[in-house]
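If your schedule permits, I should be very grateful for your opinion on a structural question. What I wish to show you is a protein chain and, alongside it, a tokenised description of its three-dimensional fold. Would you kindly read the sequence against the tokens and tell me how you understand this chain to fold? Here, with my thanks, is the record as I have it:

===
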Amino acid sequence: MPNGRRHRGSCNRVAEGNHSDQFPVPLMHGGGGTSANMNINEVLATRATQLLAAAHSDLTVHPNDHVNASQSTNDTYPTAMAITLLDRAAPALAALAHLREAFLSKAAEYDKQPRLGRTCLQDAVPLTVGQHTVRRPPGSSEPTRSCTPPPRHCTRSR
């Protein structure tokens, strides 16, 4: 489908940072995101139609019919924001994983070193530094991942 390829091409160019001057609507502006969503649809449709015209085609790409494909902004906008957040969180999650490994290393290094536990500034149960360092949420072997469950619409069925 020729206009599908052109539509993907226009999406790739926008994702690469091209055509940012075509987005006058602030991303965070109150409301449900309809104006930002439609702005994106219109830019993608216009660019895809331009690519089709450059390839000597009479086909056009419509912002609602072809790009938005009659999806509700209430579905697309939160999904796009969740995917963006998960993508942008990757460096922080990698740093947290590195920090976790450093804590585990120190826990092993000081595994036998006693330390006095404290509660409300009073003496409590004696622990080793290793026991104190490796605490994590119950049932979690990967604490950084347990804090960021995938959005329910991004999970695969088994």
Observations:
- The first helix runs from residue 2 to 15.
- The first strand starts at residue 114 and ends at 119.
- Helices lie at 2-15, 34-54, 63-68, 73-109, 129-133, 143-146.
- The chain has two domains: 2-71, 78-154.
